[in-house]
Amino acid sequence: MPGLSELVCRLGLEKQLIARSHECDFPDSVQKRPAITAPKYSVEPGDNSSGIHEKVSYLLRNALSVYEVNDERLMELNPNIILTQDHCEVCAVSESDLSESVRSALGENIRIISVSPNDLRSVFASFKQIASALGVPEKGDQLVEEIQNRFDEIKIRTAQSDKPDVVALEWMDPLMTGGNWMPELVEIAGGTNQLSTAGEHSEWIGWETIRENDPDILLLVPCGYSIEKTLGEMQHLEQKTGWEELKAVQQRRVYILDGNHYFNRPGPRLKESAEILAHIFHPSLFKNGENSSGWVQYNSETDQQHIATGSS
Predict the structure, then answer these.
(1) Residue 213 within any structural domain of the chain
(2) For residue 292, what pLDDT is reported?
(3) Which of 203, 210, 166, 170 is nearest to 188 (CA)?
(4) Sorting pLDDT into bands at 50, 70 and 90, what band is 278?
(5) Domain count of the chain?
(6) How far apart are CA 152 and CA 155, in angstroms?
(7) DSSP 8-state symbol, 34
Protein backbone atom coordinates (compact mmCIF):
# COMPACT_ATOMS: atom_id res chain seq x y z
CA MET A 1 0.00 0.00 0.00
CA PRO A 2 1.89 3.08 -1.22
CA GLY A 3 0.41 5.36 1.44
CA LEU A 4 1.92 3.18 4.15
CA SER A 5 5.41 3.33 2.63
CA GLU A 6 5.06 7.11 2.58
CA LEU A 7 4.00 7.03 6.21
CA VAL A 8 6.99 4.94 7.29
CA CYS A 9 9.31 7.43 5.59
CA ARG A 10 7.47 10.41 7.05
CA LEU A 11 7.93 8.91 10.51
CA GLY A 12 11.69 8.92 9.91
CA LEU A 13 11.98 5.14 9.56
CA GLU A 14 12.86 4.72 5.90
CA LYS A 15 16.05 2.83 6.76
CA GLN A 16 13.93 0.14 8.38
CA LEU A 17 11.85 -0.34 5.22
CA ILE A 18 13.30 -3.47 3.59
CA ALA A 19 10.69 -4.11 0.88
CA ARG A 20 7.71 -2.46 -0.81
CA SER A 21 4.71 -3.13 -2.98
CA HIS A 22 4.95 -2.61 -6.73
CA GLU A 23 2.90 0.59 -6.32
CA CYS A 24 5.13 2.22 -3.70
CA ASP A 25 6.91 5.03 -5.53
CA PHE A 26 7.21 7.95 -3.11
CA PRO A 27 9.62 9.21 -2.03
CA ASP A 28 11.75 8.20 -4.99
CA SER A 29 14.27 6.52 -2.72
CA VAL A 30 11.85 3.74 -1.73
CA GLN A 31 12.04 2.39 -5.27
CA LYS A 32 15.50 1.07 -4.41
CA ARG A 33 13.80 -1.50 -2.18
CA PRO A 34 12.69 -4.78 -3.77
CA ALA A 35 9.05 -4.94 -4.85
CA ILE A 36 7.49 -8.13 -3.54
CA THR A 37 4.03 -7.77 -5.09
CA ALA A 38 2.60 -7.61 -8.61
CA PRO A 39 -0.85 -7.43 -10.21
CA LYS A 40 -2.30 -10.66 -11.60
CA TYR A 41 -3.47 -8.83 -14.70
CA SER A 42 -1.36 -7.19 -17.39
CA VAL A 43 -1.90 -3.63 -18.56
CA GLU A 44 -1.10 -3.32 -22.25
CA PRO A 45 -0.12 0.04 -23.82
CA GLY A 46 -3.53 0.41 -25.44
CA ASP A 47 -5.60 -0.56 -22.40
CA ASN A 48 -8.06 2.07 -21.23
CA SER A 49 -10.14 2.33 -18.06
CA SER A 50 -12.85 0.08 -19.52
CA GLY A 51 -10.35 -2.65 -20.35
CA ILE A 52 -8.67 -2.48 -16.95
CA HIS A 53 -12.08 -2.59 -15.27
CA GLU A 54 -12.99 -5.75 -17.16
CA LYS A 55 -9.71 -7.50 -16.27
CA VAL A 56 -10.06 -6.70 -12.58
CA SER A 57 -13.77 -7.60 -12.59
CA TYR A 58 -12.96 -10.99 -14.15
CA LEU A 59 -10.60 -11.82 -11.29
CA LEU A 60 -13.11 -10.73 -8.68
CA ARG A 61 -16.01 -12.59 -10.35
CA ASN A 62 -13.96 -15.76 -10.13
CA ALA A 63 -13.11 -15.20 -6.47
CA LEU A 64 -9.47 -14.54 -7.27
CA SER A 65 -7.22 -11.97 -5.65
CA VAL A 66 -6.08 -9.07 -7.82
CA TYR A 67 -2.47 -9.15 -6.62
CA GLU A 68 0.15 -11.74 -5.87
CA VAL A 69 2.94 -11.75 -3.29
CA ASN A 70 6.42 -13.13 -3.96
CA ASP A 71 6.40 -15.59 -1.07
CA GLU A 72 9.95 -16.79 -1.62
CA ARG A 73 11.43 -13.29 -1.63
CA LEU A 74 9.39 -12.27 1.37
CA MET A 75 10.64 -15.22 3.39
CA GLU A 76 14.22 -14.43 2.39
CA LEU A 77 13.83 -10.88 3.69
CA ASN A 78 12.27 -12.21 6.91
CA PRO A 79 10.63 -8.99 8.15
CA ASN A 80 9.42 -8.46 11.71
CA ILE A 81 6.42 -6.38 10.65
CA ILE A 82 4.30 -6.43 7.48
CA LEU A 83 2.06 -3.45 6.77
CA THR A 84 -0.96 -4.08 4.57
CA GLN A 85 -4.61 -3.09 4.14
CA ASP A 86 -8.06 -4.60 3.97
CA HIS A 87 -9.91 -1.50 2.82
CA CYS A 88 -10.13 -2.37 -0.87
CA GLU A 89 -9.12 -5.58 -2.64
CA VAL A 90 -8.73 -3.65 -5.90
CA CYS A 91 -6.60 -0.75 -4.63
CA ALA A 92 -3.71 -2.59 -3.00
CA VAL A 93 -2.48 -5.89 -1.60
CA SER A 94 -4.64 -7.00 1.30
CA GLU A 95 -3.92 -9.18 4.31
CA SER A 96 -5.74 -12.07 2.64
CA ASP A 97 -3.15 -12.04 -0.16
CA LEU A 98 -0.51 -13.26 2.28
CA SER A 99 -0.40 -17.03 1.94
CA GLU A 100 -0.59 -19.41 4.87
CA SER A 101 2.82 -20.74 3.88
CA VAL A 102 4.34 -17.29 4.42
CA ARG A 103 2.62 -16.88 7.76
CA SER A 104 3.84 -20.28 8.84
CA ALA A 105 7.41 -19.87 7.60
CA LEU A 106 7.87 -16.47 9.18
CA GLY A 107 6.72 -17.85 12.49
CA GLU A 108 4.97 -16.41 15.50
CA ASN A 109 7.27 -13.40 15.76
CA ILE A 110 5.93 -11.85 12.57
CA ARG A 111 3.42 -9.08 13.13
CA ILE A 112 0.95 -8.22 10.39
CA ILE A 113 -0.69 -4.82 10.74
CA SER A 114 -3.65 -4.36 8.43
CA VAL A 115 -5.41 -1.00 8.30
CA SER A 116 -8.78 -0.16 6.78
CA PRO A 117 -9.19 3.62 6.51
CA ASN A 118 -12.41 4.81 4.87
CA ASP A 119 -12.54 8.42 6.11
CA LEU A 120 -10.14 10.97 7.56
CA ARG A 121 -10.78 9.90 11.14
CA SER A 122 -9.76 6.32 10.38
CA VAL A 123 -6.85 7.51 8.22
CA PHE A 124 -5.47 9.42 11.19
CA ALA A 125 -6.13 6.45 13.48
CA SER A 126 -4.09 4.25 11.11
CA PHE A 127 -1.20 6.74 11.26
CA LYS A 128 -1.17 6.54 15.04
CA GLN A 129 -1.58 2.77 15.08
CA ILE A 130 1.39 2.21 12.80
CA ALA A 131 3.56 4.82 14.52
CA SER A 132 2.89 3.13 17.83
CA ALA A 133 3.67 -0.32 16.42
CA LEU A 134 6.95 0.99 15.04
CA GLY A 135 7.94 2.49 18.36
CA VAL A 136 7.47 6.18 17.54
CA PRO A 137 3.97 7.04 18.83
CA GLU A 138 4.88 10.68 19.41
CA LYS A 139 5.77 11.13 15.74
CA GLY A 140 2.38 9.74 14.75
CA ASP A 141 0.66 12.20 17.04
CA GLN A 142 2.72 15.09 15.67
CA LEU A 143 1.95 14.16 12.08
CA VAL A 144 -1.80 13.96 12.69
CA GLU A 145 -1.75 17.27 14.55
CA GLU A 146 0.18 18.95 11.72
CA ILE A 147 -2.31 17.79 9.09
CA GLN A 148 -5.37 18.65 11.19
CA ASN A 149 -3.99 22.12 11.93
CA ARG A 150 -3.50 22.76 8.21
CA PHE A 151 -7.04 21.56 7.51
CA ASP A 152 -8.34 23.98 10.15
CA GLU A 153 -6.39 26.86 8.57
CA ILE A 154 -7.92 26.14 5.18
CA LYS A 155 -11.45 25.93 6.61
CA ILE A 156 -11.05 29.24 8.43
CA ARG A 157 -9.76 30.98 5.31
CA THR A 158 -12.66 29.76 3.16
CA ALA A 159 -15.39 30.14 5.78
CA GLN A 160 -16.87 33.32 4.31
CA SER A 161 -16.52 32.30 0.65
CA ASP A 162 -19.10 30.80 -1.69
CA LYS A 163 -18.97 26.99 -1.76
CA PRO A 164 -19.00 25.66 -5.34
CA ASP A 165 -20.86 22.41 -6.03
CA VAL A 166 -18.27 19.73 -6.77
CA VAL A 167 -18.47 16.27 -8.32
CA ALA A 168 -15.38 14.06 -8.16
CA LEU A 169 -15.03 11.03 -10.43
CA GLU A 170 -12.68 8.21 -9.46
CA TRP A 171 -13.06 6.17 -12.65
CA MET A 172 -13.79 7.10 -16.25
CA ASP A 173 -15.38 4.06 -17.87
CA PRO A 174 -17.59 3.01 -16.22
CA LEU A 175 -18.11 6.16 -14.17
CA MET A 176 -17.45 6.06 -10.44
CA THR A 177 -17.75 8.81 -7.84
CA GLY A 178 -15.00 9.65 -5.37
CA GLY A 179 -16.04 8.36 -1.96
CA ASN A 180 -14.21 7.53 1.30
CA TRP A 181 -12.18 10.61 2.39
CA MET A 182 -12.63 12.51 -0.89
CA PRO A 183 -15.92 14.22 0.15
CA GLU A 184 -14.24 15.43 3.35
CA LEU A 185 -11.31 16.89 1.41
CA VAL A 186 -13.75 18.74 -0.84
CA GLU A 187 -15.57 20.22 2.17
CA ILE A 188 -12.32 21.15 3.96
CA ALA A 189 -11.14 22.98 0.84
CA GLY A 190 -14.29 25.09 0.71
CA GLY A 191 -16.47 23.15 -1.73
CA THR A 192 -19.86 21.43 -1.49
CA ASN A 193 -19.47 17.75 -2.28
CA GLN A 194 -22.08 16.16 -4.54
CA LEU A 195 -23.10 12.56 -5.41
CA SER A 196 -20.93 10.72 -2.88
CA THR A 197 -20.81 10.24 0.87
CA ALA A 198 -17.85 10.52 3.24
CA GLY A 199 -16.83 7.22 4.79
CA GLU A 200 -18.56 5.13 2.12
CA HIS A 201 -16.92 3.29 -0.75
CA SER A 202 -16.82 4.93 -4.15
CA GLU A 203 -19.91 3.98 -6.14
CA TRP A 204 -20.75 3.50 -9.81
CA ILE A 205 -22.86 6.30 -11.23
CA GLY A 206 -24.78 6.98 -14.43
CA TRP A 207 -23.94 9.84 -16.75
CA GLU A 208 -27.48 11.23 -16.58
CA THR A 209 -27.12 11.68 -12.82
CA ILE A 210 -24.08 13.87 -13.40
CA ARG A 211 -25.89 15.86 -16.07
CA GLU A 212 -28.83 16.45 -13.75
CA ASN A 213 -26.54 17.55 -10.94
CA ASP A 214 -24.63 19.90 -13.29
CA PRO A 215 -21.87 20.82 -10.81
CA ASP A 216 -19.88 24.05 -10.79
CA ILE A 217 -16.65 22.03 -10.73
CA LEU A 218 -15.85 18.57 -12.08
CA LEU A 219 -12.80 16.79 -10.65
CA LEU A 220 -11.30 13.77 -12.42
CA VAL A 221 -9.21 11.58 -10.09
CA PRO A 222 -9.09 8.07 -11.61
CA CYS A 223 -7.64 5.64 -9.09
CA GLY A 224 -4.02 4.83 -9.86
CA TYR A 225 -3.91 7.13 -12.90
CA SER A 226 -1.35 9.80 -13.65
CA ILE A 227 -2.49 13.12 -15.08
CA GLU A 228 -1.13 12.14 -18.50
CA LYS A 229 -3.05 8.87 -18.57
CA THR A 230 -6.29 10.62 -17.62
CA LEU A 231 -5.73 13.21 -20.35
CA GLY A 232 -5.42 10.36 -22.80
CA GLU A 233 -8.90 9.10 -21.93
CA MET A 234 -10.84 12.35 -21.95
CA GLN A 235 -12.74 11.18 -25.04
CA HIS A 236 -14.83 8.95 -22.74
CA LEU A 237 -16.38 12.10 -21.31
CA GLU A 238 -16.21 14.39 -24.31
CA GLN A 239 -18.32 11.93 -26.32
CA LYS A 240 -21.08 11.85 -23.71
CA THR A 241 -24.39 13.45 -24.64
CA GLY A 242 -24.55 16.91 -23.11
CA TRP A 243 -20.88 17.14 -22.15
CA GLU A 244 -20.47 20.58 -23.71
CA GLU A 245 -23.62 21.77 -21.90
CA LEU A 246 -22.26 21.09 -18.42
CA LYS A 247 -21.71 24.24 -16.38
CA ALA A 248 -18.22 23.07 -15.39
CA VAL A 249 -17.26 22.58 -19.05
CA GLN A 250 -18.66 25.90 -20.20
CA GLN A 251 -16.92 27.78 -17.39
CA ARG A 252 -13.69 25.81 -17.85
CA ARG A 253 -13.79 24.35 -14.38
CA VAL A 254 -12.94 20.76 -15.25
CA TYR A 255 -9.78 19.64 -13.48
CA ILE A 256 -7.65 16.53 -13.78
CA LEU A 257 -5.92 15.63 -10.53
CA ASP A 258 -2.99 13.36 -9.79
CA GLY A 259 -5.10 10.87 -7.89
CA ASN A 260 -2.36 8.26 -7.86
CA HIS A 261 0.00 10.41 -5.79
CA TYR A 262 -2.43 12.46 -3.75
CA PHE A 263 -6.13 11.72 -3.54
CA ASN A 264 -6.39 7.93 -3.95
CA ARG A 265 -3.86 6.90 -1.34
CA PRO A 266 -4.56 7.55 2.36
CA GLY A 267 -1.11 8.80 3.25
CA PRO A 268 0.55 11.91 4.69
CA ARG A 269 0.11 13.87 1.45
CA LEU A 270 -3.63 14.18 2.02
CA LYS A 271 -2.60 17.55 3.46
CA GLU A 272 -1.28 18.57 0.06
CA SER A 273 -4.43 17.14 -1.52
CA ALA A 274 -6.59 19.55 0.47
CA GLU A 275 -4.26 22.42 -0.50
CA ILE A 276 -4.62 21.54 -4.18
CA LEU A 277 -8.41 21.59 -3.91
CA ALA A 278 -8.39 24.85 -1.94
CA HIS A 279 -6.41 26.55 -4.70
CA ILE A 280 -8.74 25.17 -7.39
CA PHE A 281 -11.90 26.25 -5.56
CA HIS A 282 -10.62 29.60 -4.26
CA PRO A 283 -7.63 30.75 -6.33
CA SER A 284 -7.86 34.30 -4.95
CA LEU A 285 -7.27 32.99 -1.43
CA PHE A 286 -4.60 30.40 -2.13
CA LYS A 287 -1.58 31.21 -4.24
CA ASN A 288 0.44 28.73 -6.27
CA GLY A 289 3.20 26.95 -4.38
CA GLU A 290 6.50 25.65 -5.68
CA ASN A 291 6.49 22.02 -4.58
CA SER A 292 3.50 20.45 -6.26
CA SER A 293 2.25 19.81 -9.77
CA GLY A 294 -0.76 17.80 -8.76
CA TRP A 295 -3.42 19.10 -11.13
CA VAL A 296 -4.30 20.30 -14.60
CA GLN A 297 -7.07 22.62 -15.71
CA TYR A 298 -8.64 21.00 -18.75
CA ASN A 299 -9.66 23.10 -21.75
CA SER A 300 -11.15 20.89 -24.45
CA GLU A 301 -11.77 23.77 -26.89
CA THR A 302 -8.16 24.83 -27.29
CA ASP A 303 -6.59 21.54 -26.17
CA GLN A 304 -4.45 23.43 -23.67
CA GLN A 305 -3.58 21.90 -20.36
CA HIS A 306 -2.41 24.46 -17.84
CA ILE A 307 -0.11 22.84 -15.32
CA ALA A 308 -0.65 24.41 -11.93
CA THR A 309 0.33 23.74 -8.37
CA GLY A 310 -1.68 23.00 -5.30
CA SER A 311 0.06 24.50 -2.27
CA SER A 312 -0.25 27.95 -0.78
Answers:
(1) yes
(2) 55
(3) 166
(4) very high
(5) 2
(6) 5
(7) P
